């Protein structure tokens, strides 16, 4: 069962008894937003992360959602990607493909994987350019507030160090204010070469789910949501996430154990 704690404007914190309950609630939340945005604008743009998120999305590809969601209207992007071939075990595309995309009929032309056969910088440039073309063709709108592309839903995870996407506490990419997509060649978490959406793009999303499960995330969760700040005095990237409509934290008991 979930209990809701209002945090600040447009932020909701939902705590669940188990990871299984998070998975059930996340599926309903995502399916409800899919229906809402498809009704409002005819499509649903979803930005995936890698890591544990894909497994927690597992209920979305089961009944009743497998048949009730209009998958033909979904557009899929990645908030970050490792610069490796798409069939490499480190690829976020491969992870999503195995656990999610292969199980639902999203048209392959609506799935925006990276063109990985270049340097990390060139891969980031290429992904940004493709986003710009989608904005020009009015497939992705632009935020009236920020001027950056506005995705309907971002599904984000967080690392124990408080990183989101590939924006790490001790790396400068977290401070990027102009680019839509940037790159990193020395990610503290392997593999080192990656591309990532920047905060201006992340924070222009309509809705964001932060999906946080497991005891190893309890300390970072406490720092971000507990109001005490970071004792090491490096602000955690996860604390900088906001959404234009609503940011919802989905926490299981273990992740919420220090709140
Ligand atoms: O490296 C990454 O890590 C984060 C967090 O992953 P998790 O396994 O701790 O949930 C993930 O959100 C990001 O997309 C991924 O590239």
TrEMBL record:
Domain of life the protein comes from: Eukaryota
Pfam family name, one: Glucosamine_iso
Molecular function, one GO term: 6-phosphogluconolactonase activity
Pathway linked to the protein: Carbohydrate degradation; pentose phosphate pathway; D-ribulose 5-phosphate from D-glucose 6-phosphate (oxidative stage): step 2/3
Catalytic activity: 6-phospho-D-glucono-1,5-lactone + H2O = 6-phospho-D-gluconate + H(+)
Record carries keyword ATP-binding: no
Domain Glucosamine/galactosamine-6-phosphate isomerase, first and last residues per copy: 18-249
Keyword vocabulary terms for this entry: Hydrolase
Coiled coil: none
EC number: 3.1.1.31
GO annotation (BP), single: pentose-phosphate shunt
UniProt xrefs under SUPFAM superfamilies: NagB/RpiA/CoA transferase-like (SSF100950)
InterPro entries: 6-phosphogluconolactonase_DevB, 6PGL, Glc/Gal-6P_isomerase, NagB/RpiA_transferase-like
Family of this protein: Belongs to the glucosamine/galactosamine-6-phosphate isomerase family. 6-phosphogluconolactonase subfamily.
Descriptive protein name: Probable 6-phosphogluconolactonase
């Amino acid at each position: 069962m979930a209990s809701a704690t209002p945090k600040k404007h447009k932020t909701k914190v939902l705590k669940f008894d188990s990871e299984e309950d998070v998975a059930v609630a996340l599926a309903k939340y995502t399916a409800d937003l899919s229906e809402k945005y498809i009704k409002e604008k005819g499509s649903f743009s979803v930005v995936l992360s890698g890591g544990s998120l894909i497994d927690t999305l597992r209920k979305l590809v089961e009944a009743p959602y497998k048949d009730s969601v209009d998958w033909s209207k979904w557009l899929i992007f990645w908030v970050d990607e490792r610069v490796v071939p798409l069939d490499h075990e480190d690829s976020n595309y491969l992870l999503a493909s195995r656990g999610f995309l292969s199980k639902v009929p999203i048209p392959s032309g609506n799935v925006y994987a990276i063109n990985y056969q270049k340097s990390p910088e060139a891969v980031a440039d290429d992904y940004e350019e493709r986003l710009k073309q989608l904005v020009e063709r009015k497939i992705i709108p632009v935020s009236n507030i920020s001027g950056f592309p506005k995705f309907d839903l971002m599904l984000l995870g967080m690392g124990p160090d408080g990183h989101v996407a590939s924006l790490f506490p001790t790396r400068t990419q977290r401070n990027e204010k102009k680019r839509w997509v940037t790159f990193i060649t020395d990610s503290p978490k392997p593999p080192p070469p990656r591309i990532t959406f920047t905060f201006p793009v992340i924070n222009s999303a309509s809705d964001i789910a932060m999906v946080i499960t497991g005891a190893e995330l309890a300390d970072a969760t406490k720092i971000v949501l507990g109001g005490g700040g970071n004792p090491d005095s490096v602000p955690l990237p996860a604390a900088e996430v906001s959404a234009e409509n609503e940011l919802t934290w989905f926490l299981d008991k273990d992740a919420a154990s220090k709140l």
